[in-house]
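Researcher: Next entry in the queue.
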Amino acid sequence: MFLPSYIKLYESGKLEERIKLLNDILACCTLCPRNCKVNRLKGEKGYCKSDSNVTLSSYFAHFGEEKELVGKNGSGTIFFTNCNLGCVYCQNYEISQLGYGKAVSIEELANIMLYLQKSGCHNINLVTPTHYTPQIVHALKYAIEDGLTLPIVYNCSGYESVKTLSLLKGIIDIYMPDFKYGLVECGKKYSNAPDYFEVCKMAIKEMYNQVGNLMVDRLGIAYRGLIVRHLVLPNNLESSKKIIEFIAKEISIDCYVNIMSQYRPLFKSNKFIEIARRITLIEFDEVINYAKSLGLHRGFYNN
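Model: Structure for this entry, 303 residues:
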């Protein structure tokens, strides 16, 4: 039976150390590359609009994720409120940018994890967890003590601090970052993050070094590894190809890459004429074929 790496970390006493190190960051927050340096422990809020309280919008068994996460009983998904990125086309903008959600305690968050496990879910899928990393790890400790044994999925935007990720080594079993942009101007224009490509490359390298390529059990359910998601944007094929090339040449041709076609022009996307439409089949096929030409072969066949 597979046991998540966080069990060993907890038993060694090192999980407590990580909780303290992560919580200390909240006093001068540098959890993400924004480096706002606000004191969230005193109620101050930075770019992500979050203080020390955890806010989430929903939790449930999700059947719309990758098949390796969903299996028979679903992925135990927890949607956290707010975000450190802020994309102009975000499909969950009510949660990520308008702040819809409910505050929960650390103990309540632990109980939610346990509820999802009791419901038969195959993993705990943390959606947009970056700005709540210290609180999540704290809740994980309580959940472990009450019997949590599911893999943890870190489902993020890709705009991550390597320093923070290093504190998650041995805690996260499956990293699932978005890889949104391969060009500086795209990151700047659509997410107010001109450094996105460089930051995301370093973050994904760190994730891959921690967990490697995706591994599944005899039933095809993922228990460890890296899943990279890339949403193809209209009129942005050069950006997509930069991302695909990086993964194939600097990560692994065996990397699981979910190349997605479901872009919709939501939220503020109508202010940017080049992304104010759905992508075409021709655009999508060009990205898929480019990935194949570089040897990538896992993930994008799920579309």
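Model: Residues 196-211 form the longest helix (16 residues).
Researcher: Noted, moving on.
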